[in-house]
Amino acid sequence: MAGNKSYTIVEYFGGDDGYRCGYCKNQIGNFSHGMWSHTMTVQDYQDLIDRGWRRSGKYVYKPILHKTCCPQYTIRCHALKFQPSKSHKKILKKMNKFISKGELPKEQHEGEPMDSVSEESGPRELRHSEMKCPASSDIQAAMAECPTVAEVHKEDVDVTSTNSETSRSDLVSVPGGRTTSAPKPGVGPDANRPPCRKAKDVRKERRLKKEQKKGDADGDPSIVSPTPTSPSQNNSPKLLEDFIAESLRDNSSHCLEVRLVPVSFEDPQFVASYEQSAEVFSCYQMAVHGDDPSECSESEFRRFLCDSPLEAEYSPDGPEVGYGSFHQQYLLDGRIVAVGVIDILPSCVSSVYLYYHPDFASLSLGSYSALREIAFTRQLQKQSPKLSYYYMGFYIHSCPKMRYKGQYRPSDLLCPETFVWVQIERCLPPLEHSRYARFNQDPDAGDVRALKDVGKALVLYRRTVMPYAAYSRKRKGSSDETEVRQYAGLVGQDCAERILLYRT
Fold first, then answer.
1. Beta strands per DSSP E along 306-414
2. What DSSP string describes 82-132?
3. How many Å apart are CA 213 and CA 19, to the nearest integer?
């Protein structure tokens, strides 16, 4: 997936101090472990979120679920099996009616949370400058001198050797160039059995092709359009893509375009839309979250939603747009009215945040964007069979307004002790009795990626990559073993042997 020079470098900050909870407003009740990521591969981040981590800008954090006031459980939706509920259909129809007739609903949809499907995640009050990180120039210099990742050289380290200078065999190159197993054949209709065609389905397909040709003619391949679905049988439920396609009718009062833009200041579309996107963010934060103008400035927008540690990566068996961080812009008659910030990872589309112009709050854009992102995940899965899940961030059962994420079915919650996925229906009963719960019902099951040997954890020390065992000998009895052991236990043995922990 990744080419040479692809690796992850982090600094760990522990999690002893509590900070303000954005859900119950407890001033010191929110606890999490955190680390600053200078750069991160998409596979490493995929593995981290599958262990309960989540990013806010370049800050990556993991809630301490048994200690925090409002436990946050990672939730994912099976995008391929998703069927819109009655309330979801109402939201889709409301948007289609607005696009068709041009009239905004007078009231916000009942049941639509104030916040988007991706709530304000993590301790936003933390600043890079407050974390005592090394200068960026120092990290860049260290990265430049790291060994390439074309091959992984793992050599045994003799932890019983003398305290002399570390031998050359102690040093290892940065792991990378990770490969994935051959993708399984995609699922879908049998192309050898043409189904009966309804007239309205034929018209719909022609209309979609017309829109696609228009996008191609404009030289804009980033336009995200729902993939035409195969004609459904009379008694088959209406698919999500069918509802979305209805918004593409001719002679509509408005035109809604969804455009995917990579988060990169080297991308012309991202740069051209940056100022307008930042203005929508500021309006949203002040109107919905009550932020002071200083809290939603352009610099805050850049730090929170544009600075991403994920490097753009491409794979022959991956999606055409590649992996990394993106802004999915919703343009109404050419004007940005909402932006969904997403990460495209090897196994999922991970929703980071959603902000919209408050003038359009009555359109339930938080839920609407989630439905569009589920449809987008299904579209990417046709190109990359492994990519089949939609991650919605955290499910917070103790906060009633955040339970709506559980309405996107079928979905799973991540067990906080064994890190296996459990159907949400099995998780809700124990959460009714306790804020913290272990979802895996097997009492003998454990974490299969639990830390076994902290000595094999990789560190970056004085521009040199080495196992922690070699680093300890070089430092002649380092005093940070407790901290490194805690970090390695949280990321797991596999990630600890790939990710570089920066040491000074």
1. 324-332, 335-344, 348-356, 389-395, 411-414
2. ----HHHHHHHHHHHHHHHH----SSPPTT--SS-SS---S-TT--GGGGT
3. 51
Report d(CA 52, CA 382) in Å as an integer.
27
Residue 270 β-bridge partners: none
Distance in angstroms (rounded) separating the CA atoms of residues 211 and 89 = 23
Rounded Cα–Cα distance for residues 226 and 260 (Å): 13
Residues of the chain above pLDDT 90, percent: 68
E strands in 108-183:
none
d(CA 217, CA 338): 25
What tokens were used for 190?
């049998």
CA angle 117, 120, 126 (to 5 degrees): 160
Q: Compute φ and ψ for 422, nearest 5 degrees.
A: -130, 135
pLDDT at residue 152 above 90?
no
Residue found by looking up tokens 């209805």 in the block = 246
Residue-wise pLDDT for 33-91, tens only, equals 999 999 999 999 999 999 999 999 999 999 999 999 999 999 999 999 999 999 999 99
DSSP string, 315-335: -TTS-TT-BEEEEEEEEETTE
- Pair 332, 255: CB distance under 8 Å: yes
The b/e string for 321-345 (b: 16+ C-beta within 10 A; e otherwise) is bebbbbbbbbbbeeebbbbbbbbbb
